[in-house]
Input
Amino acid sequence: MKIHKLLFPDRCIFCGKLTDEDEYEICTKCRDKSENIIKASPDFQTTKFVDQKIAAAWYKDEVRAAVHRFKYNQKPGYARAFAREMYKQYILNRCSYDMITYVPSNRYTVFKRGYNQAKLLAVELSKYTKLEVVQTVRKVRKTKPMFDLKPEERRANVLGAYEVCCDVEKIKNKRILIVDDIFTTGSTVSEIAKTLKLAGSGEVGCATFAYKKS
Ligand SMILES: [Zn+2]
Output
């Protein structure tokens, strides 16, 4: 066993128990219990701007609780386990991209939380895919929190809210994968994909850890 493992043994992201080395951060018991939740691979409808969507788990029960801890209870380390599950779907769905990007958070949220959870997932996923992580877009105006808005309000909330913030040449004709923690209505991802495509990118896909059934 590596010294790092002895000092910082992995704990199950669902039940908190210490896990064996070959279990990584989801214990066998929780994986068996959550089989249908974790191996979600939802049959997503693609949209006008988003050409492919993948997700690793349904947003319910223990997955929902773990995502909540990841976002609000200072558990940034979950990104590694989440990204590993996302990468399984990446392979299963034969994804092929040139770079990874992520949904940006506003500065206040990052300051308060200490991290942007989508960026953490993007960085962890890039360790498996070996693709560069690029911040491609930034917010140009404030938006309301999405969780208490209706689908049509969500679309309006993010309309025109992003602009490309990297060198446009860098994304020209490139296939870009947008990473986020949860897929709900897809308004944000769709708006970012639109922004990227209008700037000349190639296909745009989206990878999330969790997927909320609408
Ligand atoms: Zn467990």
In short: The domain at 38-211 is CATH 3.40.50.2020 (Rossmann fold). The beta strands are 52-58, 99-102, 132-133, 137-139, 162-164, 176-183, 204-211. The first helix runs from residue 3 to 7. The first strand starts at residue 52 and ends at 58.
